[in-house]
Amino acid sequence: MRNGGVSFWWQQVGLPSPADPLEGDVTCDVAIVGGGLTGLWTAYYLAEADPSLDIRVLEARFAGFGASGRNGGWLSAELPGSARAYARAGGEDGVARLSAAVRATVDEVVGVTRREGIEADVVRHGVLHVARSAAQAERLGGELDAAQVARRIRVAGAVSGHLDPDCARVHPARLVSGVARAVRGRGVRVHEDTRVTAVEPGAAVTARGTVRAPVVLRCLEGFTAGLSGHRRDWLPMNSALVVTEPLTPAQWDTIGWAGEELLGDEAHAYCYAQRTADGRIALGGRGIPYRFASRTDVDGRTQDWTVESLRATLTSLFPSLAGIGLDHAWCGVLGVPRDWSASVSWDPALGLGHAGGYVGSGLTATNLAGRTLRDLVLGRDTDLTRLPWTGHRVRRWEPEPLRWAGVHALYRLYRAADRREDAGLSRTSRVARLANRVAGR
Questions:
Q1: Short-list 359, 393, 351, CA closest to 203
Q2: pLDDT level of residue 141 (50, 70, 90 thresholds)
Q3: What pLDDT score does 424 carry?
Q4: What is d(CA 267, CA 257) in angstroms, rounded to the nearest whole number?
Q5: How deeply is 164 buried, as exposed, middle or buried, from its count of CB atoms within 10 A (0-12, 13-18, 19+)?
Q6: Which of 106, 95, 105, 104 is nearest to 387 (CA)?
Q7: Which Pfam families does the entry link to (predicted)?
Q8: Digit-coded pLDDT (tens) for 400-432
């Protein structure tokens, strides 16, 4: 089994060599820090709106090196954060508008892949959420009974389910590399192998030179903590995935996964899965949730015990796959604000903006954030700029060692809650409710 190497998705398509590194000081109209999907979508829509803009994207490794090329491939309509937090800013109407905007963004992304000729294994068969205990069923409130779930996918112990049709499977590396290609095709310079060390009004500072621009946008998501002055803004939360060897037709028949809907459960330490285009199961979940002092992984390598934990989850869902080979394991980080809610922000007086904090629901939200940043930077008053995540502010995370101790304690509580619920608890465990209060969710 390969461990690391960024991700299985990148190993499939081939790791790109960083291109067009910055060479000395330059000036431009817009400097975007971060070559993941947030930065690339922002560049894409700004260049579309005003082709005369000189836009530079600055990326430490290569476009899509972070979560954009490592995720589970869920292009979903999930709200990127806490409805309660958004309601405090925009009321229930604001939450409804944000939810509708995220749902419409699934169509937008699929439409861009078609217009730009991006072959990203996109299949829109929805996502099947399953409950495997009475407590999970209470939280899910699904419309499918156990028999109806089994007719789609035979998940061991499933008692109910919910199918959300507004979700598509994608191949993450093919999507982000295709968007990067489209961005470059619009005249945007993507300076790879160019690590930004500081962001300030009018400038993004790198070891290769300083990019001066009246607009500087921070789009680093889980890597935000590595930027000077931003260590406690967003927590780099860790998520890990494994991918199996290709399943045989008999194995697919046994588990009944005939379609290409995505699959997730309602556990507090949840899992998420997809049937890949080449006939494997890619399954993800939490490993070590957080590394001390906001450190991140080394090229996606994850811990052996995390791999075994994900293997156990896979065989719990599908006992008939016990012993199946795992071909690849990897991990990445996602940005988590203190209230677990994303934000898009722009300060015209300073010329600084940012977007991120998607808490694991970023594959769709990045596109919506990019279009919102476009409108904010161009001074447009639109439905997007009035969404409740615009200008959303939240306090910073606690200093170390409180941050490390708190996050690890939090996930011990969630796992304890799952054990209590799996043992027969009929409602959500009070342990999980306590964990949610501690987390600020």
A1: 351
A2: very high
A3: 93
A4: 21
A5: middle
A6: 95
A7: DAO (PF01266)
A8: 999 999 999 988 999 999 999 999 999 999 999
CATH number given to 2-377: 3.50.50.60
Please give the span between the terminal C-alpha atoms of the chain, in angstroms, as a whole number: 36
Segment holding 151, helix H or strand E: helix 146-152
Q: Are 14 and 38 in contact (CB under 8 A)?
A: no
Q: Which two tokens stand for residue 42?
A: 């922002």
* DSSP reduced 3-state for 223: helix
Q: What is the DSSP string of 74-98?
A: EEE---SB-HHHHHHHHHHHHHHHH
Dig out the tokens for 375 from the structure: 């409108």
Query: What is the distance between the alpha carbons of residues 117 and 114, in angstroms, rounded to a whole number?
Result: 5
Other C-beta atoms lying within 10 Å of the C-beta of residue 299: 15
Q: How far apart are CA 103 and CA 96, in angstroms?
A: 11
Lowest mean pLDDT of 268-272, 277-281, 314-318, 361-365, name the range: 268-272
Instruction: State whether the Cα torsion 48-49-50-53 is positive or negative.
Output: negative
Closest C-alpha among 190, 198, 194, 191 to residue 224? 198
CA–CA dist 281, 277 (Å, integer): 10
CB 192 within 8 A of CB 9: no
Buried b / exposed e over 79-116, threshold 16 CB at 10 Å, is bbbbbebbbebbeeebbebbbebbbebbeebbebbeee
| Spatial contact of 71 and 38, defined as CB atoms under 8 Å apart | no
Q: What are the CA-CA distances from residue 208 to residues 25, 34, 35, 184, 212 (Å)?
A: 8, 15, 16, 21, 13
CA proximity to 268, closest of 434, 37, 52: 434
Please compute Rg for the chain using Cα positions: 21
Residues counted in the chain: 441
Residue among 37, 187, 44 at smallest CA distance from 120 = 37
φ, ψ of residue 221 to 5 degrees: the values are 45, -120
> How does pLDDT run across 152-187, given as a tens digit for each residue?
999 999 999 999 999 999 999 999 999 999 999 999
Residue 269, pLDDT above cutoff 80: yes
Name the residue with tokens 């490390």. 404
How far is the C-alpha of 66 from the C-alpha of 9, rounded, in Å? 12
Do β-strands 215-218 and 352-356 pair in parallel, antiparallel, or remain unpaired? parallel
